[in-house]
Amino acid sequence: MTRKSSIEGKGVFANPKVDIAFKRCLGREESKDATIGLLNAIIPGKNIADVQFLNVEFPRETADQKTIYVDVICTDNNGNSFVVEMQRAGQPFFMQRMSYYAARVISTLAMSKSDIAYAVKPCYVIAFLDFDMSKTLSLSDSEDRYMRHYVTVDLEVGGDAIHPGSPEFFYFDLTKFKKSLEESDDDKDIWLTLLNESQEFTAIPQKLLEDKSYAAFFEGLRRANFTTEESLQYDKEMTDEMCWQAALDFQRQQGLQQGLQQGAHNRALESARAMKAEGDTIDKIVRCTGLSLEEVAAI
Question: Do 184 and 240 fall within a single domain?
Answer without folding.
Answer: no
